[in-house]
């Protein structure tokens, strides 16, 4: 499974509970397709370098979020469709990383997550093929 990075900008009028609900929804979609979320980051609501124009509106700031995940590339189509059709999203981009994180970095991610909720035995075996075996981490 390749490592992907999703960056997206959400309209500034969207309230924080709705913003986090969208992140939760996107995360559930990744997990339901057998993926693993490795990191979620919010960069707040900064002023943009240039305004984004949409029909009937002009946005000079936006909520910026990042989600890193591992997922089979065949499963990305539905996630792209969801991002393209959601009215709250101003811009989005999915990048595929050419290399996996190191085993140490991967352990650090697992320490932050309740890995039992995110990793199935099948997913762990798939990951161990790529990054090598890893031991249990403290919660």
From TrEMBL:
The keyword Ribosomal protein applies. GO terms for molecular function: small ribosomal subunit rRNA binding; structural constituent of ribosome. It holds the Pfam family Ribosomal_S6. The keyword Phosphoprotein does not apply. GO terms for cellular component: cytoplasm; ribosome. Keywords: Ribonucleoprotein, Ribosomal protein. It comes from the Eukaryota. PANTHER family: MITOCHONDRIAL 28S RIBOSOMAL PROTEIN S6, SMALL RIBOSOMAL SUBUNIT PROTEIN BS6M. This is 28S ribosomal protein S6, mitochondrial.
């Amino acid at each position: 499974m390749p490592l992907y990075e999703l960056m997206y900008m959400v309209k500034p009028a969207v309230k924080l509970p709705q913003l986090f609900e969208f992140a939760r929804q996107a995360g559930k979609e990744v997990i339901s397709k057998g993926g693993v979320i490795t990191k979620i980051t919010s960069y707040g609501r900064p002023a943009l370098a240039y305004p984004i124009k949409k029909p009937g509106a002009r946005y000079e700031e936006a909520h910026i979020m990042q989600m890193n995940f591992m997922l089979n590339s065949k499963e990305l189509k539905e996630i792209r469709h969801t991002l393209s059709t959601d009215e709250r999203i101003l811009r989005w981009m999915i990048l595929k990383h050419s290399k996996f994180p190191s085993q140490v970095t991967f352990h650090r991610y697992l320490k932050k997550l309740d890995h039992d909720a995110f990793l199935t035995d099948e997913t762990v075996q798939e990951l161990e093929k790529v990054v090598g075996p890893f031991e249990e981490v403290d919660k």
